[in-house]
Recover the amino acids of this structure.
């Protein structure tokens, strides 16, 4: 075996500090990439995000006039139909299989965990029932009675960030947490800028970023997962036979 | 000294080899994986990967399933029950070794930090 064929292996790294810990960390990384490929494709998430963004951002096209508006609406319709066709034809999973190979995800959680999941879902639904008045109060607090500011993208990023935090994290998991932190800060700044400068709500760019926040978030999350896979799984692997 | 060496557990040599450990780690994170993915994630050559998989199959640690789809052979590999328990034992052994090394370091630290005895001056001749 050539020594340069296993860049992820800790055995090639200098044996300093805690070599066993380093081996475990590298294998956590291998496990992370495997689980990532076993989960729904990131590009599918990005495509769904694009469709959602197109649907939400359409309202923000009112500032265009005449022919430009007609062209924009036509382009919008074409993108929407094209996106749905790609999604329904399962082209992305097929591309993933060819580019990265395929992984069957580990067994689904046992019935005990399913029960816990459904119980948690029920509790969340109950919370959601109470959330609407809370949201109204929240919008009043941030001087947005017309509820123009969309708080959901910030909530989504913050929830994902909290969910990603663990006591022991491998470097690849830590990297993802930094990415989620950047997303949380980005979308929170869109909200907070509108609170401190209410005039910005009239700006086309702010309207698009605010209305298409969830779509943009899904695009960013999906692309991030895809890029991680592209980096971890090279297109070409060693062809030579070194038995 | 011999007693000290006997106290250190030894890891399973079959699993301890980096390429095989990488394959088993990947398989422990999923139900099954195909050959293409295993090759890309471990960055092994086709020949090397097949040899390692054959070794693991002969040891009863993995199950290899081959099927023909569109005139092409598709190889899928999964961890056997024995493979799951052996891998778990391997990580337990590694944890035990780590704990042993940490213990040894703690024992030796006071020895290293202890002040050196002053050398008596050589008698003048």
């Amino acid at each position: 075996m050539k020594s340069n064929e296993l860049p992820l292996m800790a055995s090639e790294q200098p044996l300093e500090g805690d070599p066993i810990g380093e081996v475990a960390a590298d294998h956590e990384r291998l496990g992370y990439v495997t689980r990532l490929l076993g989960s729904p494709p990131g590009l599918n998430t990005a495509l769904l995000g694009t469709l959602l963004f197109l649907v939400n951002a359409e309202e923000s096209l009112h500032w265009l006039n005449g022919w430009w508006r007609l062209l924009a609406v036509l382009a919008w319709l074409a993108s929407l139909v094209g996106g749905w066709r790609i999604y329904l034809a399962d082209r992305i999973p097929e591309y993933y299989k060819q580019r990265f190979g395929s992984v069957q995800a580990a067994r689904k959680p046992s019935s005990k965990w399913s029960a816990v999941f459904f119980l948690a879902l029920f509790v969340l639904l109950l919370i959601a029932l109470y959330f609407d008045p809370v949201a109204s109060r929240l919008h009043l607090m941030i001087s947005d009675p017309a509820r123009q500011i969309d708080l959901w993208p910030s909530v989504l990023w913050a929830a994902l960030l909290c969910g990603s935090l663990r006591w022991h994290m491998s470097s690849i998991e830590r990297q993802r947490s930094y990415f989620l932190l950047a997303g949380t800060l980005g979308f929170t700044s869109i909200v907070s800028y509108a609170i401190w400068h209410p005039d910005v709500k009239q700006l086309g760019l702010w309207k698009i970023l605010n209305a298409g926040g969830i779509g943009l978030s899904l695009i960013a999350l999906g692309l991030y997962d895809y890029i991680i896979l592209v980096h971890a799984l090279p297109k070409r692997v060693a062809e030579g036979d070194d038995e | 000294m011999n007693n000290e060496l006997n106290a250190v557990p030894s890891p399973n040599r079959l699993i301890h080899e980096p390429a095989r450990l990488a394959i088993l780690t990947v398989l422990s994170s999923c139900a099954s994986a195909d050959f293409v993915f295993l090759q890309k994630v471990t960055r092994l050559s086709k020949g090397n990967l097949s040899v390692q998989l054959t070794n693991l199959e002969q040891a009863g640690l993995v199950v290899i399933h081959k099927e023909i789809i569109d005139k092409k052979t598709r190889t899928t590999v999964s961890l056997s029950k024995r493979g799951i328990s052996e891998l778990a034992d391997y990580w337990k052994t590694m944890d035990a070794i780590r704990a042993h090394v940490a213990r040894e370091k703690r024992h030796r630290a006071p020895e290293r930090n202890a002040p050196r005895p002053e050398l008596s001056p050589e008698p003048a001749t």
User: Anything to note?
Assistant: The mean pLDDT of chain B is 84. Chain B touches chain A through 35 residues (CB under 8 Å). Residues 39 and 49 of chain B are 7 Å apart (CA to CA).
